[in-house]
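Lay summary. Proteins are chains of building blocks that fold into shapes, and those shapes determine what they do. In this project we predict the shape from the chain. Here is one chain we studied, written as its sequence of building blocks.
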Amino acid sequence: MGFIFSKSMNENMKNQQEFMLMNARLQTERKGEEETQREKHQCEKDIY
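And here is the predicted shape, written in a compact code that computers can read:
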């Protein structure tokens, strides 16, 4: 019984870690996009 319980807990932890990793990647990508937009906007200001 304990083995089955710990196995499902391990599975839950693994899924949670994968979810957190995906979340971190998305946030990193979003930050990069925001910085790119900001730089683009700054360049447009400099040109005009």
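What the prediction tells us: The helical segments are 2-47.
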